[in-house]
Amino acid sequence: MTTTDPGAATAQPGPQDDVPDFPVPRSCPFSPPQTYAGVRERDALTRVRVHGGKHAWLVARFEDVRTALAHPGASSDARNPAFPALGAGEQQVAAELRPFIRMDPPDHTQVRRMLVGEFTLRRVQALRPEIEAVCAEQVEHLLSRPQPADLVADYANRVSTTVICRLLGVPMEDLEFFRRVTSVSGSRTATAQEVGAALQELFGLLDRLIDLKAVTPGDDLVSRLVNGPLARGEITRTSLLSQIGITLNAGHETSRNAIPLAALDLLRHPDQLDLLRADPSLWPDAVDELLRHLSVADVITLRVATQDIALSVGTIPAGDAFIALLAGANHDPAVFDEPERLDVRRAQRHHVAFGHGVHQCVGQNLGRVELEIALRTLLERVPSLRLAVPESELPMRGASAIFGLDEVPVTW
Amino acid sequence: MVSAAGGGRVLADQDVCVGAGQCARVAPGVFDQADDGLVVLLVRDVPAGEVDAVLDAVDRCPSGAVRLGAPAGGPY
Fold first, then answer.
1. Distance from CA of A113 to the nearest CA of B (A)
2. Which keywords, in A-to-Z order, does the entry hold (chain A) (predicted)?
3. From B35, which residue of chain A is nearest by alpha-carbon distance?
4. Inter-residue contact A236 to A274 (CB < 8 Å)
5. What is the ipTM, given to two decimal places?
6. For A115-172, how does the pLDDT look when each residue is reduced to its tens digit (9 = 90+)?
7. A350 class by beta-carbon count within 10 Å (0-12 exposed, 13-18 middle, 19+ buried)
8. What's the rounded Cα separation, in Å, for the pair A205 and A245?
9. CB–CB of A117 and B37 under 8 A?
């Protein structure tokens, strides 16, 4: 690992660098990659090489991650050549489509404000009965499947797709459609052409939906955006398609990956599950602890410093790329006692699983409630649920934007 | 600044707010989230029993929109 003097640092490739590649795979689905602890403990910035040979600094300490992500000089704009994209097609696609997660203020602010009203605490609380009905229906589907069934395809994917599609007002005859799209659009190995083709299929569907909602609006996000900001000329149709697309994909993929992982995390900690069964009022805290422990969106926070950003381990110079490791921060022993331990009664609950700064997850309130209801419904309806294969045989999604398991065979 | 006995001023800047809703989640007696997603103050000064919750909200606010100021009558 290259040691650098932060004062004279440059993230650009040098002639004889021995910079490690990034991202690195997890060795256990329930823990951050093993190298993160070393990055966090080093009293200097750590430099890595990402796709295409570009360099980026890693930020791994909790307070540094918060400082860096909240800094006005932290740019998310994928059009910047230094943007540290992790996937082959990621930068080109993000630079062209400009989803709001890869924008800076004031453009970002304008789009985000069109969406935040759809995900308020009050709105999400009102959705609880509907989410409960979706989970109850899908757990019966799981139980109707031959054993071992797949907790991803037969439950989590169906729950996450149904919930986000209903919220947006997107028809969903084919529950596997969005899973197929995100398996390409979120893949690090997919080229820009492959990602573009997968998204075009989605955008075709959304394009027809925009026309439909303009004529026959419903009580949903797409209808409100079409008849509000789009009709008033505050957003272009092209941008609206991108913003609906990222909301749908992000809302679907995160929950789909988090639900099976969190269920397994509880099953492998029976003492914690017993606490929840004895006192269901612990569930909201348990959800935050699971979000912290698993940190599935670990490396979504790709940035370029547009000003010098001073951190405890050195200064990221203006112009250099950095990646704020959410799993690194959430497992920082300076903030979380015994961070590897799952503790639903943990006192420290201010994790960064949803990021920090102006890009902190717009759907976090929905994500929390959806995860809570999906887990409670599953574990209450199927008390004998257990993994049907050894943990070491679970196929991890190593090369995707959001961490998860491809398949989780379960029995009961 | 706020003291353990309360009395500090709560400040919320809607121009900075990104509508994450964290403040209304951890200190619902002090902050609300309007239908447009942005922060709304329910009180002007930190209630004595809500000091920890308000400090938590200030700590969690991702955009720095929620802050504490001097007690009423102070320089703010």
1. 7
2. Heme, Iron, Metal-binding, Monooxygenase, Oxidoreductase
3. A117
4. no
5. 0.88
6. 999 999 999 999 999 999 999 999 999 999 999 999 999 999 999 999 999 999 998 8
7. middle
8. 10
9. yes
Question: CA of A120: which chain B residue's CA is closest?
Answer: B37
Q: Is A270 exposed, middle or buried, given 0-12, 13-18 or 19+ CB atoms closer than 10 A?
A: exposed
Percent of chain A scored above 90 by pLDDT? 83
In angstroms, rounded to a whole number, what is the distance separating the alpha carbons of residues B61 and B52? 14
Question: Collapsing DSSP states into helix, strand and coil, what is residue A58?
Answer: strand
Closest CA to A374 of A151, A145, A171: A151
**Which domains are assigned to chain A?**
6-411 (1.10.630.10)
What single-letter amino acid sits at A180?
Answer: R
Mean pLDDT score across all residues of chain A: 93
* Interface-testing mutation among A360, A361, A368, with chain B (most B C-beta atoms within 10 A): A360
In this structure, of A16-20, A126-130, A247-251, B42-46, the range with the lowest mean pLDDT score is: A16-20
Inter-chain contacts counted by CB atoms under 8 A, chains A and B: 59
Bridge partner residues of B16 (DSSP) = none
Q: Which residue is it, tokens 């010098």?
A: A308
The tens digit of pLDDT for each residue in A190-236 reads: 898 998 898 898 999 999 999 999 999 999 999 999 999 999 999 99
In this complex, which of A117, A118, A358 lies closest to B18 when CB atoms are compared? A358
**Which residues of chain B lie closer than 8 angstroms to A365, CB-CB?**
21, 25
Distance from CA of A205 to the nearest CA of B (A): 28
Q: Is the pLDDT of residue B4 over 60?
A: no
CB atoms B37 and A116 under 8 Å = yes
d(CA B45, CA B50): 10
Nearest CB neighbour to B62, from listed A113, A121, A360: A360
Rounded distance between C-alpha atoms, residue A169 and residue A224, angstroms: 10
Minimal CA separation from A140 to chain B, in Å:
32
**Residue A397 predicted with pLDDT over 90:** no
| Nearest-neighbour CA in chain A from B24: distance (Å) | 8
Decide if pLDDT at A68 tops 90. Answer: yes
Q: What is the CA radius of gyration of chain A?
A: 21
Domain annotation for chain B: domains and CATH numbers = 9-60 (3.30.70.20)
Residues in chain B: 76
pLDDT confidence of residue B6: 55
Dihedral sign, CA of A388, A389, A394, A395?
negative
